[in-house]
Amino acid sequence: MPRRVNMPGADELFRSTAREAATPETSASAPAPAPEDATASRSGSGRVKHDEKMTVYVTSDELLAIEQARLRLRRALGRNVDRGRLVRAALAVALEDLEARDTDSDIAERLREA
Question: Which of 34, 50, 64, 78 has a CA between 20 and 30 Å from the CA of residue 7?
Fold first, then answer.
C-alpha cells in the first residue's frame, strides 16, 4: 500500500499574505493601485512589511559608516534605528532632492563625479 503525500496546490503556495481578507471582487494577483502622485510625499517606509527586496553591496568602510550613523542616531533619538530603516530614509531624502532639484541635486552631482 503506497503512501501518497498530499501537497498544497499553487493557490495555497502563492496566496496573498496581506492582513485584509480577500473579497470576491479582488483577486490575490491583482496589483495594488498606484498612488496618484508617488513623488508628492516620499518618506522612509519605516517598520512595515516590505514586498520587494534589493541587494546592495557596500565596502567595509561604508558599512562601518552606516553602523556609526545608526548608533549615533540611536543615542540621539533614543530609539532603535536599524540599517534598513536608515538606508530607506536616506534614499527617500535623496529621491526628494532629485525630484525637487533635478540635475542640480546632490545625488546628480555625486553621480556626475563618479
Answer: 50
